Amino acid sequence: MLKIDNLTAEIGGKQILNGLTLEVPAGEVHAIMGPNGAGKSTLSYVLGGRPGYEVTGGSVTFNGEDLLDMEPHERAAAGLFLGFQYPVEIPGVSNVQFLREALNSQRKQRGEEPLSGGEFLKLAKEKAGLLKLDMDMLKRNVNVGFSGGEKKRAEMVQMGILDPSFAVLDETDSGLDIDALRVVGEGINAIMRKPDKAVLLITHYQRLLEVVKPDKVSILSKGAIVKTGGPELAERLENEGYDAVMAEPA
Amino acid sequence: MSEAATLPTRRDEAWRYAAVDLLRESDLAWRQIDVAAGENARELLLVTDENLEETEVHRLRVTVGEGARFELFGVIAAADYARVEVEVTLGKGAHFEMGGITVGGRDTVREFVSRTTHAEPDGTSNQTVRAVHWGKGTGNFLGQIDVVRHAQKTDAAQDFKGLLLEKGASVNAVPQLEIFADDVKCAHGATVGQLDESARFYMAARGLTPELSRRLLVQAFIGDALVALDDEGAQERLLQAALDKLDKHL
């Protein structure tokens, strides 16, 4: 579904990704773990197409199409969802308006009919319920005045409403308490654990992986994947640390 | 008196930013409005007709009686040079509310000029102006507030924000406060900025086209000027007039 081949990228002239290769087929949850500064967030921004992140080599194909050739909004319409580590506040724009415009913009790009106000609200209510987020929160401005946990929950409500086929979730677990972590993790399972969908789950910690059980775990270090294994790799990292696990021969 | 002598010049502070050369044919007469004690009056001004002459000047001279309220809400989105000028004299406990929006590109100049005189105690005034410009367009807000010696407990506020969508556009804010009473509150603020790029990427990552995200952000930005307008239909009409201009020319 997503195929990254020998990807190199830089920001401000500094090379961050150094020949990253990774393939995530449909039906898979693939966790990426790695120490600070390994390039985890850069990877997610490059996949999302953030301005300023320059791809200098390699390729990324998404369902057979050249992802890097698409504008950020086209990537979203093609089914890619980027969950932000730090969701952005947008004063003066309500969640309801933002998400309805976003969903209908995606549908229009795909040649589908727009959702009516009533249909949209029904959908939003259902997804907010799934993530235990009060509907009143969705009437407020996008992320404005939300706590760290509320922002992450709202991200997952957005994902539920937009219903992507592939999600790149960048440290969705940061800033969550134990209860919120469970709610968010179960939300990811409910929305994305389907045979025709896949997830790239970027995280620092093992704890989210206890709820969202990954099929594969890869370690990202210095801009490249240095080791890939099953869920047991995450447990070993938690117990032994990055240095010890990465020191072993691949 | 010769005609030339009655025309304003750039030396006159209030006309410094104006395209004075265009004024030759304009009607510079004042329209008088008197709001009787205890009454409420509202003036809505839309300078949005594409077929307007090169120059469009509206001048209002308003007296607001004791305990009365005068509101002026306006959108300037047409004519090469357009100016809405208002002189308000507030009686005891009277209120003046102003919300102004200027939008424009090419080499247009669009401006609000206000002179508010707090002539008696307990008067309040609140002015909010938002300017969105592109091309070589200019938006101005010249706001003078005079508080006479015995107008104690005056509470006056001015808030200006400019949003420049392209390099080459400009805004000017000239707050001018002359306060001769000692127990008053007078606040003013002015900022100039551009669209928040991190918000634009966030919106793109949810599928909004660049045009839609810009429209939403501009809508949120100019919406501030209409918050105090408690007529939803009128609010919608003014907002739409400003946004239509943006859609047509960007």
For this structure, what is the CATH class of chain A? Alpha Beta
| Helix-strand pattern of chain B | HEEEEEEEEEEEEHHH
Strand content of chain A: 25-35%
Number of strands of chain B: 12
Globular, elongated, flat, extended or rod-shaped: what is the shape of chain B?
Answer: globular
What's the overall average pLDDT of chain A, rounded?
93
Structural class of chain B: alpha/beta
Distance between the termini of chain A: 25 Å
What is the fourth-level CATH superfamily of chain A?
P-loop containing nucleotide triphosphate hydrolases
Count of distinct structural domains of chain B? 1
Helix coverage percent of chain B: 10-25%
Total DSSP helices of chain A: 9
The percentage helix of chain A is 25-40%
> Which stretches of chain B are low in confidence, meaning pLDDT under 50 for 5 or more residues running?
none
Low-confidence stretches of chain A: none
**Gross morphology of chain A:** globular
Named at the architecture level, the CATH assignment of chain A is 3-Layer(aba) Sandwich
Largest interface: A-B, 31 and 22 residues
Q: Can you list the strand order of the major beta sheet of chain B?
A: 1-3-5-7-9-11
Folded structure, characterized:
The complex is a heterodimer of chains A (250) and B (250). Chain A has 250 residues and is of the alpha/beta class. Chain A has one domain: P-loop containing nucleotide triphosphate hydrolases (Rossmann fold). Helices cover 38% and strands 29% of the residues of chain A. Chain A contains 9 helices and 12 strands. A 6-stranded mixed sheet of chain A has the order 6-9-10-3-11-12, with helices on both faces. A 4-stranded antiparallel sheet of chain A has the order 2-1-4-5. Chain A is globular. The two termini of chain A are 25 Å apart. Chain B has one domain. In chain B, 18% of the residues lie in helices and 44% in strands. In chain B, the strands form 2 sheets. Chain B has a 6-stranded parallel sheet, with no helix packed on it. A 6-stranded parallel sheet of chain B has the order 2-4-6-8-10-12, covered by helices on one side. The longest helix of chain B has 18 residues. Chain B is globular and about 55 Å long. At the A-B interface, helix 2, strand 7 and helix 3 of A face helix 2 and helix 3 of B.
